[in-house]
Specification:
About 25% of the residues lie in helices and about 25% in strands. The protein has about 260 residues and is α/β, with parallel strands linked by helices. It binds zinc ion. Zinc ion binds near residues 107 and 243.
Length: about 260
C-alpha cells in the first residue's frame, strides 16, 4: 500500500504578476508552500521541506531583505514540515528519503532537520546552485543556508525510480530552474498523482499555458509544462500544483492521507 500525506510548509504573500505576468502589478495574494510525505513499504519519502521554521520569528535574518519583501511570510507556528510530521506521530529520523524539487528557499528550508535521510536532488540543480555564473543571473537563487549542510545528497541524472518498482518516480521538469524535478506516484490501480512543484504554480498556469515571471529557461519550462498537461489530460493523472491557493483549499491535509491505495 502507498499513501500520500499533504503537509503545510508555510505561506507567503506575493504579487500576482510573479505567477501571471499578463496581469497589472499591485495585487498580492497568499499562496501555500506544500510538502508531501509518501509512505511506501520500502520507506518514507518527504517531497520538499518548505520554509525554515525560524523565518516566522526572523524573516529578514532567514530570507534576506530582498526576498522577505518580495515574499511576505504568512506562516503560523506549526506551518513547517517537522511540526507537520509530528501530526502523524513521526520524527525526522524516520524519514528515509528527502527529495528537493529544486533549491529555492521555499522548497529546501527544512533540509537541515533531516541529517539521517538520503537526499535526492538532480545533479544539474546542485551544480547550478553552486555556480557563481548562474547565481548572478538568478539573484535569489539559491539558499545556501538552507541546503548547504553536510547532508547525504545523492545526485541523480534525469528520471529515477526511487523504490525500484515504478511506483515513485522522480520526473525531470527542468525550466523553472536548471534541475527542477517533479514526483510521480502510482498508488493502486489507475491512481496516478504528480506533485508538480514549481514546474507549474497553479491550475490557471496550466490551463492558459502561461509561464510565470520566475523562470530559468522558457523553452525548457514550456516543454515540462506540456509534459505535465499530457499526464493530466491524456493519462488522467491528478496534478498537484506548486502553489495553488484554490487547490490547496480542496486538498485533504495531514494527519489524514490524501491518497491511499
Ligand atoms: Zn516555490
Amino acid at each position: 500500500m502507498i499513501e500520500i500525506y499533504v503537509l503545510c510548509g508555510g505561506y507567503v504573500d506575493l504579487d500576482q504578476t510573479i505567477f501571471f505576468p499578463d496581469r497589472a502589478p499591485g495585487t498580492r495574494w497568499t499562496v501555500p508552500i506544500p510538502g508531501f510525505l509518501v509512505v511506501h513499504p520500502g520507506g518514507r519519502l518527504l517531497f520538499d521541506t518548505g520554509i525554515h521554521c525560524g523565518a516566522i520569528a526572523d524573516p529578514i535574518g532567514r530570507l534576506g531583505e530582498r526576498r522577505a519583501k518580495l515574499f511576505g511570510l504568512r506562516s503560523r507556528p506549526g506551518d513547517d514540515v517537522v511540526s507537520q510530521l509530528a501530526l502523524l506521530g513521526l520524527r525526522p529520523d524516520q524519514v528515509t528519503y528527502v527529495v528537493n524539487s529544486h533549491l529555492h528557499f521555499d522548497h529546501c528550508g527544512g533540509n537541515a532537520f533531516f541529517p539521517g535521510s538520503t537526499f535526492l536532488v538532480q545533479r544539474k540543480e546542485m551544480e547550478a546552485a553552486r555556480d557563481p555564473g548562474v547565481l548572478a543571473q538568478q539573484r535569489y537563487f539559491p539558499s545556501f543556508q538552507d541546503f548547504d549542510h553536510p547532508l547525504a545528497y545523492r545526485l541523480v541524472d534525469g528520471e529515477h525510480d526511487v523504490f525500484g518498482d515504478g511506483t515513485v518516480l522522480l520526473l525531470p521538469t527542468y525550466g523553472h530552474t536548471p534541475g527542477h524535478q517533479s514526483l510521480r506516484v502510482r498508488a493502486g490501480k489507475g491512481t496516478e498523482w504528480v506533485l508538480a512543484a514549481d514546474a507549474c504554480y497553479t491550475q490557471e498556469n496550466m490551463d492558459r499555458d502561461l509561464l510565470p515571471g520566475v523562470l530559468w529557461d522558457a523553452g525548457e519550462m514550456a516543454h515540462s509544462l506540456a509534459r505535465l498537461r499530457e499526464l493530466r489530460d491524456r493519462r488522467g493523472a491528478t496534478i498537484v500544483y506548486g502553489h495553488d491557493p484554490g487547490q490547496w483549499q480542496e486538498l485533504r491535509r495531514a494527519p489524514g492521507p490524501v491518497v491511499r491505495g
